[in-house]
Amino acid sequence: MVKTPDELALMRQSGRLLASVFEMLDGLELAGMSTLEVDTLVDRFITEDLAARPASKGQYGYRHVLNCSINHVVCHGVPDAAAIIRDGDIVNFDITLEKNGFIADSSKTYLVGDASPTARRLVRVAQEAMWKGIRAVRPGAFIGDIGYAIEKHAKKNGYSVVRDYCGHGIGREMHEEPQVLNHGRPGTGVRLQEGMVFTVEPMVNQGTRRVTTADDGWTVVTNDGKLSAQFEHTVAVTATGVEVLTLRRDEKLAA
Questions:
Q1: Stated pTM of the model
Q2: Per-10-residue mean pLDDT, the chain, length 255
Q3: Using CA atoms, how far apart are residues 97 and 12, in angstroms rounded to an integer?
Q4: Cα separation of 189 and 180, whole Å?
Q5: How far is CA 21 from CA 53, 55, 65, 219, 242, in A?
Q6: Residue 234's closest CA among 4, 7, 14, 6?
Q7: CA distance linking residue 139 with residue 136, whole number of Å
Q8: CA-CA distances (angstroms) from residue 12 to 67, 97, 212, 245?
């Protein structure tokens, strides 16, 4: 679970590279693009521009570089030439990148064009919930503190948090211990210590937290067809608090 200073230095490099992928996506006009087009673009950017490896490609038999989850899709949406991103959609891109043997993992939900006020509010609260969880990370805190902060913020705003999926330790492998649930009780679970690296990745739903996996075996959707939004960062526990390894240039450690 605990990374050495040298390993953390390599993870910072992977995190910075992955942040640059999202910075590239920030400049795209997504409306009218297919999700497969985005996948191809990201594949080329990671392999050619960054000389890195898209870690999701081939993992668990998955054939693509990213997950792209539109509107009521919670997570694990599969790129498809027929899936066109449209004005008013919300779409989450979940991307992993490996460099020098270490993996970073991050996701962001984009508002496409003239998204509705209700969609904008959901996306804002989901992002805030992620930051509430990240702000709970420090040596001596507990995994349960993170999930409690996330779910408390979502519920306060009238939303639910998906419990079927969660954050996870990360390093040489994409999924390591510990599991980082998006719900919990303060003071419970694994006690955090300096050098631990894991993801914080709440999935926040407009309606029920219940989800279903589609027939393709990957795509997870809300049971009631309402919107879902997700944000994710890879973080490290420091001597005094937390470092966000996948932080983008337009972000800061939010309150």
A1: 0.96
A2: 96 98 97 98 98 95 96 98 98 98 98 97 98 98 98 98 97 96 97 98 98 96 98 97 95 66
A3: 12
A4: 9
A5: 12, 13, 12, 23, 22
A6: 14
A7: 10
A8: 22, 12, 35, 5
